[in-house]
TrEMBL record:
Any GO molecular function: 4-hydroxy-3-methylbut-2-enyl diphosphate reductase activity
Database matches in NCBIfam families: ispH_lytB, PRK01045.1-4
Superkingdom of this protein's organism: Bacteria
Name of the protein described by the UniProt record: 4-hydroxy-3-methylbut-2-enyl diphosphate reductase
Pathway recorded for this protein: Isoprenoid biosynthesis; isopentenyl diphosphate biosynthesis via DXP pathway; isopentenyl diphosphate from 1-deoxy-D-xylulose 5-phosphate: step 6/6; Isoprenoid biosynthesis; dimethylallyl diphosphate biosynthesis; dimethylallyl diphosphate from (2E)-4-hydroxy-3-methylbutenyl diphosphate: step 1/1
Family of the protein in this entry: Belongs to the IspH family.
Residues holding dimethylallyl diphosphate: 225, 258, 308, 406-408, 450
Keywords, ordered alphabetically: 4Fe-4S, Iron, Iron-sulfur, Isoprene biosynthesis, Metal-binding, Oxidoreductase
Binding positions ((2E)-4-hydroxy-3-methylbut-2-enyl diphosphate): 225, 258, 308, 348, 406-408, 450
Binding site for isopentenyl diphosphate: 225, 258, 308, 406-408, 450
UniProt-annotated catalytic positions: 310
Length: 490
C-alpha cells in the first residue's frame, strides 16, 4: 500500500518532508482539501499533517494532537490507528494528546471555539473533514499553534507557529513509519487467550472484598501480573503492598494468585489480619506436592525461575529441601542429598517444551525420581502456548499482550519465536513499534493469562486502521473451567 502525507500549507509540507516519505502540498482550506482527497483510491494510506488551533486548556502551543475521530458528512468518523501513532510519537519525547479534531470552513475564534470544545474536540482545523471519505487508512496529526488564552491574532503567534512546525518536523520519522506500516492483510487471533479461571477468580476476590468490607483492602504484591488490572483495582480502593509488614494491624488483606510461603501466613496471623487467600488452586496443588515430598525426606527439584513470586512461595514450603532448577544445564549438574530420594515439581507458567526438556534430563539422571500425578503446568498456560504456536506458523509477526513481569506472557513470546515468527511483548497498543508492522500482512495476536481481553480488542481495532481489516480466530481448545471463591467472599 502507498502512503502519503497531505499538508495544507507549504511550510507544513516542508516541515514533514524527510527521505522516504511522500508529501503532498494540498493547499489551505476545505475546497482544496476536497480536491486532493478525491485523488486517492483504496490502495493509498493518507495522513493529514499540519498546524491547528487548540480548543481547551489541556493543549499548549507546540503540542501534537492525534485525532481519534474527525468530522464526516454523516457525523464523526473514527480513526482507529490513533493510539498506535500517538504511542510512537510519545516515544520520541513529544507531548501528544489523543481526541477528536473538529473542522471549520473558516478560522475559529471566541464563542465558536468554545462551542466546539463543548462537543469534546481538542483542536480545530480547516481540512481534515474533507478527507473523511478516503477509502484507505487515514490518520490526522496536528501541531497546536494558538489556544483560547493565546489567540491567533496576538503577539507571539510567529514564535508559536515556529514551535508547532518544529514539533511537526520532529514527528516526521514517525509519520513515515505509519505510512510504511499500512497495508492490507489480516489479524490472526490465538484462542484461548487472556484471562484464565485462576486470574478471573483472583480479581473477583478483590472486587468482592471491596464490596463486602469496604476500602481499603490490602493486597500483598500484585494480585496478578498485569499493570492494567492493578491500576483498575487501585481505582476501586485496593492498596497494593510488598510485604505483610506494610499492612496495618487487623486490616483486610488478600494474598495474590501466585501463592505465598507459610512464613507469610504466620506474619499475617501475628498482625491479626483478616486474610483472604486468592492463590490459584493449581498453584496450591504444587504447594501440596512439595509438602508431601518433603515430609518423606525427598529433595524436591522445582523446575522454574528462582526470581518468580510463585517459585518463592513454593520454595518456602520446605526451604532446606527444595532446589530450583532453571534450565537443562542446571538439571545436568544438580546434586540431591540422597539420589534415591528425589522428586520434582514445576512452576505452573513455564513453557511446556522447555519444562519437559529439563524434566527429561532429571529423569535420566534419577530413574527413581517421583513425579506429580499430573503435569504442574496449568491447563491455561498449555492451551495458550498451543494456540500461539498454531498462529505463529502462519504469521509474519506475533504480538503478545501482557506485562513484562508476567511469566506466562513472556513464555508465549518465546514459543512464537521458536516457531520462526518475530514476536514482541507489549503491555498495550501504545507499546507497539510501527516499524514491526512494515510488510507484515498476517499479524498474530494473543495475550497472557493475566492480560484483560479489552486490550486485545483495542489492538485489533488499531490494526484495522492500518489496513488489516480481516480478522480470523484460530481456536485450539475450549475453556469452561471456573474455580470456587473463598468463603470470606463467596
Amino acid at each position: 500500500m502507498n502512503g502519503v502525507v497531505c499538508a495544507p500549507m507549504y511550510l507544513e509540507a516542508a516541515a514533514v518532508r524527510v527521505p522516504g516519505l511522500r508529501v503532498l502540498h494540498t493547499g489551505m482550506g476545505p475546497r482544496r482539501a476536497a480536491e486532493s482527497a478525491r485523488r486517492f483510491g483504496g490502495d493509498t494510506a493518507v495522513l493529514v499533517a499540519g498546524v491547528a488551533g487548540g480548543l481547551t486548556g489541556r493543549v499548549r502551543p507546540g503540542d501534537l494532537v492525534v485525532a481519534t475521530e474527525i468530522d464526516g458528512p454523516g457525523g464523526p468518523v473514527r480513526l482507529p490507528s490513533a493510539h498506535l501513532l500517538a504511542g510512537a510519537l510519545r516515544r520520541l519525547g513529544l507531548t501528544v494528546h489523543t481526541g477528536p479534531i473538529a473542522s471549520s470552513d473558516t478560522l475559529v475564534e471566541g464563542a465558536d471555539r468554545a462551542r466546539l470544545a463543548v462537543g469534546g474536540a481538542l483542536a480545530v482545523d480547516m481540512e481534515s473533514a474533507q478527507f473523511a471519505g478516503v477509502p484507505g487508512p487515514l490518520a490526522v496529526v496536528r501541531a497546536i499553534v494558538d489556544t483560547p488564552d493565546r489567540p491567533l491574532w496576538r503577539p507571539g503567534t510567529v514564535l508559536r507557529g515556529i514551535a508547532g512546525l518544529r514539533s511537526l518536523h520532529a514527528a516526521a520519522p514517525v509519520l513515515r513509519e505509519w505510512c510504511e506500516a499500512t497495508g492490507s492483510g489480516e489479524v490472526l487471533l490465538a484462542s484461548p487467550r487472556s484471562f484464565c479461571a485462576g486470574v478471573d477468580r483472583a480479581i473477583e476476590i478483590v472486587e468482592r472484598a471491596l464490596q463486602r468490607y469496604g476500602a481499603p483492602v490490602y493486597v500483598r504484591r500484585q494480585i496478578v501480573h498485569n499493570v492494567h488490572v492493578v491500576r483498575r483495582l487501585e481505582g476501586l480502593g485496593a492498596v497494593f503492598v510488598q510485604e505483610i509488614e506494610d499492612v496495618p494491624p487487623g486490616a483486610t488483606t488478600v494474598l495474590a494468585a501466585h501463592g505465598v510461603a507459610p512464613s507469610v501466613r504466620q506474619a499475617a496471623a501475628a498482625k491479626e489480619l483478616q486474610v483472604i487467600d486468592a492463590t490459584c488452586p493449581l498453584v496450591t496443588k504444587v504447594h501440596n506436592e512439595v509438602r508431601r515430598y518433603s515430609a518423606r525426606g525427598d529433595t524436591v527439584f522445582l523446575i522454574g525461575h528462582a526470581d518468580h513470586e510463585e517459585v518463592e512461595g513454593t520454595v518456602g514450603e520446605a526451604p532446606g529441601q527444595v532446589v530450583v532448577v532453571e534450565d537443562a544445564a542446571a538439571a545436568a549438574h544438580v546434586q540431591p542429598r540422597d539420589p534415591g530420594k528425589v522428586a520434582y515439581a514445576m512452576q505452573t507458567t513455564l513453557a511446556v517444551d522447555e519444562a519437559e526438556e529439563i524434566a527429561t534430563v532429571l529423569r535420566e539422571r534419577f530413574p527413581a525420581m517421583q513425579a506429580p500425578r499430573r503435569d504442574d503446568i496449568c491447563y491455561a498456560t498449555t492451551n495458550r502456548q498451543r494456540a500461539v504456536r498454531a498462529v505463529a506458523g502462519e504469521a509474519d509477526l506475533v504480538l503478545v499482550v501482557g506485562s513484562a513481569n508476567s511469566s506466562n506472557s513472556k513464555r508465549l513470546v518465546e514459543v512464537a519465536r521458536r516457531q520462526g515468527a518475530p514476536a514482541h511483548l507489549v503491555d498495550d497498543v501504545s507499546e507497539v513499534d510501527l516499524r514491526w508492522l512494515a510488510g507484515a500482512r498476517r499479524i498474530g495476536i494473543t495475550a497472557g493469562a493475566s492480560a484483560p481481553p479489552h486490550l486485545v480488542e483495542e489492538l485489533t481495532r488499531c490494526l484495522s486502521g492500518l489496513g488489516r481489516t480481516r480478522v480470523r480466530d484460530s481456536q485450539v481448545a475450549d475453556e469452561d473451567i471456573r474455580f470456587t471463591l473463598p468463603r470470606e467472599v463467596g
